[in-house]
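Suppose a classmate hands you a notebook page containing two proteins, each written out with its sequence and a corresponding row of structure tokens. How would you begin to make sense of it? This section walks through that situation. The first entry is reproduced here exactly as it would appear on such a page.
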Amino acid sequence: MKAIAFSGSPRKNGNTEILCRYTLNAIEEEGLETELIRLLEYEIKGCNGCDACMKGEICTIKDDLMPLYEKMKAADAIILASPVHVCSTTPEIKALIDRSTYIALWNGKTLSGKVGGPIAVARRAGAGLTMVQLAMWYWINDCFMCGSTYWNVLYGGHTKGDVEKDEEGFRTMRNFGKNVAFLVKKLNDVPGTGAFKDVPKIFKPYEMHA
């Protein structure tokens, strides 16, 4: 069982990455393997609308999207995190969610049943819009979003590490991570957590023209 977190920040070791690591640590404590993926280390261009993915799990854009898409397919849990840039997600993570969604939907909903949730980091405003953008990815891909003791929104200034002042936010992130791990183990029928043996049976292949 594995959980991955995508940090959509263009800054290394910034506030978004700090939160991803903290959340993954809470998940790791429950026995899951984890991986942090910094999108700043990859080239991911925006979708060009060529429709090649309608014919298979392919993309004509020559960049780093497909290896990351394969990581998404292999993971049990996916966390999407972004700082707020002009009341929105960053271009890096927007390109990831756009293109992974088109490929997945046209090819049998390949990301269906993943567990996870969004994280937004704001200085003051725009967190709600950013959260909605990221949450829409989970809904359209037939995923399970986990809740927490509050919304997964944390506040801090531009200075790296400033988000650590948000103590309530960090408690929220820890509980979110624990819930992600709990649900992953439930869905994998791990002894001691209960079983959802019939859940996969409700998933149906995506039919664009149904």
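The notebook's second entry, a different protein, reads as follows.
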Amino acid sequence: MPLVAVVMGSKSDTEAMQPTLDVLTQLGIDYEVSVISAHRDPERARQFGLSAREQGIEVIIAAAGGAAHLPGVLASWTTLPVIGVPLATSELKGVDALYSIVQMPAGIPVASVAIGSAGAKNAAYLAAEILSLKYDEIRKAYEKYRSQLQGDNK
């Protein structure tokens, strides 16, 4: 059963989010991928947010560019942790998406990561950290990855 939902606003975001999927796979974390537009299909976004917990999802990673409303819209419909990934899809190269994701109103938090592939990877690592609180196998896989990072710096 997937523990993480990776949600994108458009199919064209798939390439930008591939690093997220690669890291989740590397760490052995089951995930599902959905394409849901907060603007073109707001009812589907609402239903997804309302039903995610019942589906076994424990963390949502939501990627969007431009106005980047998807992470915030999903967060408004669930109390699960939502990690927003700002994508560089406009002339502003993702800064607009970053500001949209980090400027959530009090009470509806969305975690945010960096723009680009480092952010896409960090979204998966942050999900792993969250899930590590409950799942020892994920904690061990993540700790192994982190120990390898330390070895790379020597």
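A careful reader of the second entry would note: Residues 4-143 form a domain with the Rossmann fold fold (CATH 3.40.50.1970).
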